[in-house]
Predict the 3D structure of the following.
Amino acid sequence: MKPYIYLRGLRHVDLSVFCVEDGQKAYWDSVFGVWVPYSSGQQVKRCVMDSLSDLLRIDPSPVTFVLDVNSKNALGEGEVLSLCDPQYLDQLLGGWMKASKGGKERTLKRRSPFSISAMRPLHPLLGGRFTENITFDRSNKPELHKVIVRNAAGQPMSEDEIEELLQGTDRSLFRKWIPENKRATGLFVYDIAIDLRTLFAVSVNQLEPELTKDKIEELKTNGWIMTKNVFGECLVMPKDKREKVIPAIAKALIQWKISSNQSRTFSLMETLAVAISDNANQLAGAIRAKLIDEGDKPKAKPIIDEHAGADVFVALPCAGYIITESESADALERAERQLIDMLLAYDYENQ
Protein backbone atom coordinates (compact mmCIF):
# COMPACT_ATOMS: atom_id res chain seq x y z
CA MET A 1 0.00 0.00 0.00
CA LYS A 2 1.30 3.45 -0.89
CA PRO A 3 2.13 5.70 2.09
CA TYR A 4 -0.05 8.62 0.98
CA ILE A 5 -3.79 9.23 0.70
CA TYR A 6 -5.03 12.23 -1.27
CA LEU A 7 -8.47 13.78 -0.91
CA ARG A 8 -10.20 16.56 -2.83
CA GLY A 9 -13.47 18.05 -1.67
CA LEU A 10 -15.80 20.24 -3.74
CA ARG A 11 -18.09 22.68 -1.93
CA HIS A 12 -20.66 25.28 -2.83
CA VAL A 13 -20.23 28.62 -1.07
CA ASP A 14 -23.05 31.12 -1.15
CA LEU A 15 -22.54 34.74 -0.04
CA SER A 16 -20.16 34.04 2.81
CA VAL A 17 -16.97 35.42 4.33
CA PHE A 18 -13.92 33.40 5.37
CA CYS A 19 -11.85 34.43 8.38
CA VAL A 20 -12.21 38.21 8.08
CA GLU A 21 -9.43 40.65 8.81
CA ASP A 22 -10.03 43.33 6.22
CA GLY A 23 -13.05 41.91 4.48
CA GLN A 24 -12.97 38.71 2.43
CA LYS A 25 -9.45 37.48 1.74
CA ALA A 26 -8.53 37.21 -1.93
CA TYR A 27 -5.56 36.86 -4.23
CA TRP A 28 -4.99 38.08 -7.76
CA ASP A 29 -5.08 35.42 -10.48
CA SER A 30 -2.65 36.66 -13.09
CA VAL A 31 -3.78 34.16 -15.75
CA PHE A 32 -7.42 35.22 -15.90
CA GLY A 33 -7.04 38.70 -14.40
CA VAL A 34 -9.55 38.36 -11.54
CA TRP A 35 -9.56 38.59 -7.76
CA VAL A 36 -10.14 35.12 -6.30
CA PRO A 37 -11.56 34.65 -2.77
CA TYR A 38 -10.09 31.92 -0.61
CA SER A 39 -9.89 30.39 2.84
CA SER A 40 -6.33 29.65 3.94
CA GLY A 41 -5.03 26.12 4.46
CA GLN A 42 -4.36 27.05 8.09
CA GLN A 43 -8.03 27.90 8.58
CA VAL A 44 -9.14 24.66 6.94
CA LYS A 45 -6.74 22.75 9.20
CA ARG A 46 -8.09 24.55 12.26
CA CYS A 47 -11.64 23.66 11.25
CA VAL A 48 -10.71 20.00 10.72
CA MET A 49 -9.09 19.88 14.16
CA ASP A 50 -12.12 21.56 15.77
CA SER A 51 -14.46 19.08 14.08
CA LEU A 52 -12.32 16.18 15.29
CA SER A 53 -12.42 17.41 18.89
CA ASP A 54 -16.19 17.87 18.69
CA LEU A 55 -16.75 14.40 17.25
CA LEU A 56 -14.67 12.72 19.94
CA ARG A 57 -15.85 15.12 22.67
CA ILE A 58 -12.31 15.84 23.74
CA ASP A 59 -10.52 19.08 24.55
CA PRO A 60 -7.57 20.30 22.51
CA SER A 61 -4.19 20.52 24.16
CA PRO A 62 -3.46 23.50 26.42
CA VAL A 63 -1.12 26.21 25.13
CA THR A 64 0.93 28.74 27.10
CA PHE A 65 1.43 32.20 25.58
CA VAL A 66 4.45 34.07 26.96
CA LEU A 67 4.49 37.88 27.08
CA ASP A 68 7.71 39.84 27.63
CA VAL A 69 8.08 43.31 29.15
CA ASN A 70 10.77 45.29 27.31
CA SER A 71 13.06 48.04 28.54
CA LYS A 72 10.35 50.64 27.86
CA ASN A 73 7.95 48.75 30.16
CA ALA A 74 5.79 47.74 27.21
CA LEU A 75 4.39 44.27 26.63
CA GLY A 76 5.62 42.31 23.64
CA GLU A 77 4.84 38.89 22.22
CA GLY A 78 7.06 36.06 23.40
CA GLU A 79 7.08 32.31 22.79
CA VAL A 80 4.06 30.07 22.32
CA LEU A 81 4.77 26.97 24.40
CA SER A 82 3.19 23.69 23.32
CA LEU A 83 3.08 20.52 25.39
CA CYS A 84 4.59 18.52 22.48
CA ASP A 85 2.51 15.54 23.57
CA PRO A 86 1.08 13.20 20.89
CA GLN A 87 -1.39 11.82 23.41
CA TYR A 88 -3.41 14.94 22.56
CA LEU A 89 -4.94 14.18 19.17
CA ASP A 90 -4.77 17.77 17.92
CA GLN A 91 -1.01 17.70 18.58
CA LEU A 92 -0.44 14.29 17.00
CA LEU A 93 -2.28 15.32 13.84
CA GLY A 94 -1.62 19.05 13.85
CA GLY A 95 2.07 19.04 14.70
CA TRP A 96 3.93 21.30 17.12
CA MET A 97 6.93 23.51 17.68
CA LYS A 98 8.45 24.54 20.99
CA ALA A 99 11.42 26.91 20.87
CA SER A 100 12.45 28.48 24.15
CA LYS A 101 13.85 32.00 24.24
CA GLY A 102 17.63 32.17 24.35
CA GLY A 103 18.07 28.57 23.24
CA LYS A 104 18.25 27.28 26.82
CA GLU A 105 16.23 24.21 25.87
CA ARG A 106 16.31 22.13 22.72
CA THR A 107 13.74 23.04 20.08
CA LEU A 108 11.07 20.37 19.57
CA LYS A 109 9.36 20.18 16.17
CA ARG A 110 6.82 17.84 14.64
CA ARG A 111 5.43 18.34 11.18
CA SER A 112 1.74 17.60 10.74
CA PRO A 113 0.96 14.42 8.76
CA PHE A 114 -1.75 16.48 7.02
CA SER A 115 -0.78 18.80 4.18
CA ILE A 116 -3.82 21.00 3.54
CA SER A 117 -4.37 23.43 0.69
CA ALA A 118 -6.29 26.66 0.75
CA MET A 119 -9.98 26.35 -0.10
CA ARG A 120 -10.25 28.27 -3.36
CA PRO A 121 -12.49 28.30 -6.44
CA LEU A 122 -12.43 25.17 -8.60
CA HIS A 123 -11.48 27.60 -11.39
CA PRO A 124 -10.85 31.36 -11.16
CA LEU A 125 -13.96 31.90 -13.30
CA LEU A 126 -16.13 29.71 -11.04
CA GLY A 127 -15.78 31.80 -7.90
CA GLY A 128 -16.16 35.47 -7.22
CA ARG A 129 -15.97 38.25 -4.71
CA PHE A 130 -18.35 41.18 -4.52
CA THR A 131 -19.08 43.99 -2.12
CA GLU A 132 -22.17 45.36 -0.42
CA ASN A 133 -22.93 48.13 2.05
CA ILE A 134 -24.65 47.17 5.30
CA THR A 135 -25.94 49.10 8.29
CA PHE A 136 -25.94 48.43 12.01
CA ASP A 137 -28.20 51.23 13.25
CA ARG A 138 -31.65 51.32 14.91
CA SER A 139 -33.10 53.91 12.54
CA ASN A 140 -36.32 51.91 12.25
CA LYS A 141 -36.88 52.48 15.98
CA PRO A 142 -35.86 56.09 16.74
CA GLU A 143 -36.64 55.65 20.43
CA LEU A 144 -33.81 53.10 20.64
CA HIS A 145 -31.36 55.01 18.46
CA LYS A 146 -29.46 57.80 20.20
CA VAL A 147 -26.98 60.13 18.51
CA ILE A 148 -24.34 62.26 20.24
CA VAL A 149 -22.34 64.83 18.28
CA ARG A 150 -19.24 66.29 19.97
CA ASN A 151 -17.64 69.61 19.06
CA ALA A 152 -13.92 70.23 18.61
CA ALA A 153 -13.50 70.50 22.39
CA GLY A 154 -15.11 67.11 22.92
CA GLN A 155 -18.31 68.54 24.39
CA PRO A 156 -21.78 67.24 23.35
CA MET A 157 -23.57 69.68 21.02
CA SER A 158 -27.17 70.80 21.51
CA GLU A 159 -29.92 70.01 18.99
CA ASP A 160 -29.87 73.61 17.73
CA GLU A 161 -26.10 73.44 17.20
CA ILE A 162 -26.43 70.15 15.35
CA GLU A 163 -29.20 71.53 13.15
CA GLU A 164 -27.04 74.53 12.27
CA LEU A 165 -24.11 72.22 11.53
CA LEU A 166 -26.17 70.15 9.08
CA GLN A 167 -27.64 73.07 7.17
CA GLY A 168 -26.82 72.86 3.49
CA THR A 169 -25.85 69.17 3.66
CA ASP A 170 -27.62 65.89 2.89
CA ARG A 171 -25.97 64.08 5.78
CA SER A 172 -28.04 61.67 7.91
CA LEU A 173 -27.02 61.00 11.48
CA PHE A 174 -29.27 57.96 11.89
CA ARG A 175 -27.91 55.65 9.19
CA LYS A 176 -24.62 53.96 10.13
CA TRP A 177 -23.04 52.30 7.13
CA ILE A 178 -20.33 49.64 6.95
CA PRO A 179 -19.13 50.17 3.37
CA GLU A 180 -17.64 47.65 0.94
CA ASN A 181 -18.32 44.42 2.80
CA LYS A 182 -16.79 41.68 0.68
CA ARG A 183 -18.55 38.35 0.13
CA ALA A 184 -17.43 35.12 -1.56
CA THR A 185 -19.52 32.85 -3.74
CA GLY A 186 -18.95 29.96 -6.14
CA LEU A 187 -17.66 26.39 -6.33
CA PHE A 188 -14.65 25.82 -4.07
CA VAL A 189 -12.19 22.95 -3.68
CA TYR A 190 -9.72 21.95 -0.98
CA ASP A 191 -7.02 19.26 -1.16
CA ILE A 192 -5.54 17.18 1.66
CA ALA A 193 -2.54 14.85 1.56
CA ILE A 194 -2.22 12.36 4.44
CA ASP A 195 1.24 10.96 5.20
CA LEU A 196 0.49 7.51 6.64
CA ARG A 197 4.12 7.03 7.67
CA THR A 198 3.82 9.71 10.36
CA LEU A 199 0.07 9.76 10.94
CA PHE A 200 0.31 7.80 14.18
CA ALA A 201 4.10 7.63 14.52
CA VAL A 202 6.36 10.05 16.40
CA SER A 203 10.12 10.10 15.92
CA VAL A 204 12.41 9.38 18.90
CA ASN A 205 15.50 10.70 17.10
CA GLN A 206 17.27 13.07 19.51
CA LEU A 207 19.41 14.69 16.80
CA GLU A 208 16.27 16.42 15.42
CA PRO A 209 13.92 15.84 18.35
CA GLU A 210 10.16 15.72 18.31
CA LEU A 211 9.95 14.51 21.92
CA THR A 212 11.84 14.91 25.17
CA LYS A 213 13.42 11.81 26.66
CA ASP A 214 10.95 11.94 29.56
CA LYS A 215 8.00 12.03 27.14
CA ILE A 216 9.42 9.03 25.24
CA GLU A 217 9.49 6.99 28.45
CA GLU A 218 5.96 8.13 29.34
CA LEU A 219 4.63 7.02 25.95
CA LYS A 220 6.29 3.61 26.31
CA THR A 221 4.67 3.21 29.71
CA ASN A 222 1.29 4.06 28.16
CA GLY A 223 1.55 1.32 25.52
CA TRP A 224 3.06 3.14 22.54
CA ILE A 225 5.02 0.69 20.38
CA MET A 226 8.68 1.14 19.49
CA THR A 227 9.32 0.44 15.80
CA LYS A 228 10.94 1.98 12.70
CA ASN A 229 9.69 3.90 9.70
CA VAL A 230 11.53 5.50 6.80
CA PHE A 231 12.66 8.32 9.09
CA GLY A 232 14.17 6.04 11.74
CA GLU A 233 13.07 4.80 15.13
CA CYS A 234 9.66 5.94 16.25
CA LEU A 235 6.82 5.31 18.67
CA VAL A 236 3.43 4.28 17.24
CA MET A 237 0.04 4.78 18.86
CA PRO A 238 -1.46 1.45 20.04
CA LYS A 239 -3.85 -0.25 17.62
CA ASP A 240 -6.89 -0.10 19.92
CA LYS A 241 -6.53 3.68 20.25
CA ARG A 242 -6.02 4.11 16.50
CA GLU A 243 -9.18 2.21 15.71
CA LYS A 244 -11.18 4.49 18.00
CA VAL A 245 -10.03 7.73 16.36
CA ILE A 246 -9.82 6.71 12.68
CA PRO A 247 -13.61 6.97 12.02
CA ALA A 248 -13.62 10.47 13.54
CA ILE A 249 -10.61 11.47 11.43
CA ALA A 250 -12.39 10.32 8.25
CA LYS A 251 -15.57 12.23 9.12
CA ALA A 252 -13.69 15.40 10.12
CA LEU A 253 -11.70 15.46 6.86
CA ILE A 254 -14.88 15.37 4.78
CA GLN A 255 -17.56 17.06 6.88
CA TRP A 256 -15.68 19.88 8.63
CA LYS A 257 -17.34 23.27 8.79
CA ILE A 258 -15.96 26.79 8.93
CA SER A 259 -15.83 27.62 12.65
CA SER A 260 -18.42 30.16 13.77
CA ASN A 261 -15.78 32.54 15.15
CA GLN A 262 -14.03 32.61 11.79
CA SER A 263 -16.93 33.25 9.44
CA ARG A 264 -19.93 35.52 9.15
CA THR A 265 -22.92 35.55 6.82
CA PHE A 266 -23.91 31.90 7.17
CA SER A 267 -23.70 29.52 4.23
CA LEU A 268 -24.18 25.76 4.38
CA MET A 269 -21.00 25.33 2.33
CA GLU A 270 -22.40 21.93 1.45
CA THR A 271 -20.03 19.28 0.13
CA LEU A 272 -20.94 18.45 -3.45
CA ALA A 273 -18.38 15.76 -4.23
CA VAL A 274 -15.31 14.04 -2.83
CA ALA A 275 -12.49 12.30 -4.69
CA ILE A 276 -10.04 9.93 -2.95
CA SER A 277 -6.90 8.33 -4.38
CA ASP A 278 -3.29 7.39 -3.65
CA ASN A 279 -2.35 9.38 -6.78
CA ALA A 280 -2.59 13.16 -6.52
CA ASN A 281 -2.86 13.61 -10.31
CA GLN A 282 -6.03 11.53 -10.36
CA LEU A 283 -7.70 13.99 -8.00
CA ALA A 284 -7.00 16.85 -10.37
CA GLY A 285 -8.73 14.94 -13.17
CA ALA A 286 -11.68 13.68 -11.14
CA ILE A 287 -12.92 17.10 -10.00
CA ARG A 288 -11.88 19.76 -12.47
CA ALA A 289 -13.01 22.55 -14.76
CA LYS A 290 -12.78 22.97 -18.53
CA LEU A 291 -12.54 26.20 -20.46
CA ILE A 292 -15.20 26.65 -23.12
CA ASP A 293 -15.08 29.28 -25.81
CA GLU A 294 -18.21 31.41 -25.94
CA GLY A 295 -17.37 34.47 -27.97
CA ASP A 296 -15.03 37.11 -26.61
CA LYS A 297 -15.27 36.01 -23.00
CA PRO A 298 -14.13 32.49 -21.98
CA LYS A 299 -16.14 30.50 -19.45
CA ALA A 300 -15.31 27.55 -17.25
CA LYS A 301 -17.42 24.42 -16.98
CA PRO A 302 -17.18 22.29 -13.81
CA ILE A 303 -16.69 18.57 -14.43
CA ILE A 304 -17.02 15.46 -12.26
CA ASP A 305 -15.14 12.61 -13.98
CA GLU A 306 -15.56 9.15 -12.47
CA HIS A 307 -13.18 7.62 -15.02
CA ALA A 308 -10.09 9.64 -14.12
CA GLY A 309 -8.79 6.96 -11.75
CA ALA A 310 -9.89 8.29 -8.37
CA ASP A 311 -12.81 7.04 -6.31
CA VAL A 312 -15.49 9.72 -6.66
CA PHE A 313 -18.48 10.24 -4.37
CA VAL A 314 -21.17 12.66 -5.56
CA ALA A 315 -23.75 14.10 -3.15
CA LEU A 316 -27.30 15.01 -4.17
CA PRO A 317 -26.82 18.84 -4.22
CA CYS A 318 -24.06 18.45 -6.83
CA ALA A 319 -26.64 17.82 -9.56
CA GLY A 320 -27.79 21.42 -9.19
CA TYR A 321 -24.43 22.74 -10.41
CA ILE A 322 -22.82 19.98 -12.48
CA ILE A 323 -24.30 17.46 -14.91
CA THR A 324 -23.94 14.08 -13.24
CA GLU A 325 -25.76 10.77 -13.17
CA SER A 326 -24.31 9.15 -10.05
CA GLU A 327 -25.35 11.43 -7.21
CA SER A 328 -26.63 9.65 -4.11
CA ALA A 329 -27.91 10.44 -0.63
CA ASP A 330 -25.21 8.34 1.06
CA ALA A 331 -22.25 9.55 -1.00
CA LEU A 332 -20.42 11.26 1.86
CA GLU A 333 -20.95 8.30 4.18
CA ARG A 334 -19.42 6.01 1.53
CA ALA A 335 -16.49 8.39 1.15
CA GLU A 336 -15.94 8.20 4.91
CA ARG A 337 -16.05 4.42 4.75
CA GLN A 338 -13.47 4.44 1.96
CA LEU A 339 -11.15 6.62 4.02
CA ILE A 340 -11.63 4.46 7.11
CA ASP A 341 -10.77 1.29 5.18
CA MET A 342 -7.61 2.87 3.75
CA LEU A 343 -6.50 4.20 7.13
CA LEU A 344 -7.09 0.84 8.80
CA ALA A 345 -5.31 -1.11 6.08
CA TYR A 346 -1.91 0.52 6.54
CA ASP A 347 0.59 -1.46 8.63
CA TYR A 348 1.80 1.23 11.01
CA GLU A 349 3.92 -1.12 13.16
CA ASN A 350 5.76 -2.71 10.21
CA GLN A 351 6.45 0.01 7.69
Q: What stands out?
A: The chain has a mean pLDDT of 87.
